[in-house]
Each structure stands twice: as C-alpha cells, then as structure tokens.
Specification:
Blueprint: H1 9-12, E1 22-23, H2 29-39, H3 44-48, H4 60-81, E2 83-87, E3 93-98, H5 107-113, H6 115-121, H7 124-146, E4 154-161, H8 170-181, H9 189-192, E5 196-200, H10 205-210, E6 214-222, E7 229-236, H11 243-258, E8 262-264
Parallel strand pairs: 4-5, 6-8
Antiparallel strand pairs: 1-2, 2-3, 3-4, 5-7, 6-7
Helix pairs in contact: 2-4, 4-5
C-alpha cells in the first residue's frame, strides 16, 4: 500500500515527493539519458547528427542506438562538470545546466564521459555536423549574444520531458531549480544577477519558455543537411533585487535584442 493511500485525505492532496527536482546521481545517468532520448526522438536537431548520407543504410535500431549513446555521453559530461537534474517517479524529465565559468570541453571530461570514444565511431558526415558545424556555431553564437556576460551566465543545454509526463509542470521545476529555488546552494540566478541562456529546436517551446522569463534574441541555422534546421536563441534576464546587477544584465540583453538576426555557418566539405 502506498503512503498516500494510507494517510489522511488532506495529505493525499499533497504533491508527491518526487515532484521536486533533484540532482542526478551517477547510477541514474543512463536513465536520465534515456529520458532525453525519448523526449528528443522526433527533434530535428537531435536527428541532425543521426540521419545523414553516411547512415542511410543503417537500420532504425542502429540509428536509435547512436541517438541514445550521444545522450548518454552528454548527460555523463554534465554529471561530471555541470548540473544534471531530473524529476518525476521514473526520470520523467531531465535538464542539463552548465553553471557559470564551467564547460565540458576539456579532454578529461570528454574522455570520462565517453564522448572521445564515440567521436571516433561516428561516420564522417555525422562527425562533421557535430564537431565542425554544430559545436562551433553554438559556441560562437553564445559569445556574441552574451558578450562579457558569457562566462557568468547559466546555460540550459538540454531540457526534455517524456511524452507521457508532459503537462505536469516538470520543466518549470527544472528551470526554477536554477533561477530561484535553491538559495541554500547559492544557485539562484536571480539573486546573483545572472543571465540564463538556451537554444530551442521546437517551434512550440519558445512560447513555453517565455512564460518563465526567456526572450527570443536570435535565430541560427544548421545547413549541412538537405534543408536548413533552425534553432531559436533565448535569454532570461534575472528578476533583480539588486538594481546594479539588473542594469548591467539588461543593457547587454537590449544589445542582443537589437542585433537579432539569422546566422548561418557555411558547410565544410
């Protein structure tokens, strides 16, 4: 018998304990990655690294395995150097944050996460799309948009919810864990006057993120495939109690908004 069914009616109306966001443990990395793989199963950007001319003859199972392996490497890297969060009774939603001043580009993190090994296994076109187009474009765009605030901002690298768990407010919890919830761990972007940055690859998501304070500042495209794949760049200004921080962040954000434009990376051969 569950705890809720054996307690009072008032207690049964309380949200379950697993409704709170929590940090992913090492033994949960694969489960968290599997959640993201499911959440991004039909995502154009996620599939951009899977469906290429070099994998045309691959079976669906082999392509899915590559998709899952990529997610597992990425989650592992964020476990090691970033902040990997999950929520729900069955790892129903996952967010991967990179804290200010951190990145997962160092050789040790790449090695321990499995990314180095996986990179050697990728077909040539898949590797070119990921290493020569995607990563440089994201890195350059983030620097251009955030400017001097780049190193001091929170970066929401991935956030996804399993289809069966959508509509429960999980994404908001995973975002608010960083923006305002955990004062005791000093991760509050608002109190610290820090910007939050993300890329969105789904047309519906910008509306959702805007309700959490994010604003569209730019669009970018991946162009090595048969058709351009577009991503929206969004930035969240901190809700400040400290006016000096707010003025600094807002000034940079206004500059990004005024300079909003499409940016393309010329495909490399």
């Amino acid at each position: 018998m569950s705890e809720a069914s054996s307690s009072s009616s008032a207690r049964s109306n309380e949200p379950p304990r697993n409704f709170d966001a929590r940090i992913v443990a090492w033994n949960e990395v694969n489960a968290a990655a599997d959640c993201l793989a499911e959440a991004f199963a039909d995502d154009d950007v996620a599939m951009y690294f899977v469906n290429t001319k070099d994998t045309e003859r691959w079976s669906k199972e082999r392509k899915w395995d590559l998709h899952v392996q990529l997610m597992r490497c990425i989650v592992s890297a964020h476990y090691l150097k970033g902040l990997a969060l999950t929520i729900g009774p069955d790892h129903d939603a996952v967010a991967l944050w990179m804290p200010p001043g951190k990145n997962m580009d160092d050789w040790l993190t790449m090695l321990l996460s499995g990314m180095t090994f996986l990179n050697f296994k990728l077909p040539k076109e898949n590797r070119c799309r990921f290493d020569k187009e995607f990563l440089p474009l994201l890195h350059r765009t983030k620097q251009e948009v955030l400017g001097s605030h780049d190193a001091n901002s929170w970066y929401l690298v991935y956030i996804g919810t399993k289809p069966k768990a959508r509509g429960k407010g999980y994404a908001r919890k995973l975002i608010e864990y960083v923006t305002k919830q955990v004062r005791d761990l000093k991760r509050e972007a608002d109190d610290q006057g820090r910007l939050c940055y993300l890329e969105s690859s789904n047309d519906i998501n910008p509306v959702i993120y805007s309700k959490m304070g994010f604003e569209m500042v730019k669009k970018i495209e991946l162009t090595r495939g048969p058709a351009p794949v577009e991503m929206d760049i969004m930035v969240r200004n901190p809700i400040q109690r400290n006016a000096s921080h707010q003025t600094l962040a807002s000034g940079q954000h206004d500059h990004a908004l005024k300079g909003a434009q499409k940016q393309q990376l010329t495909p490399n051969s």
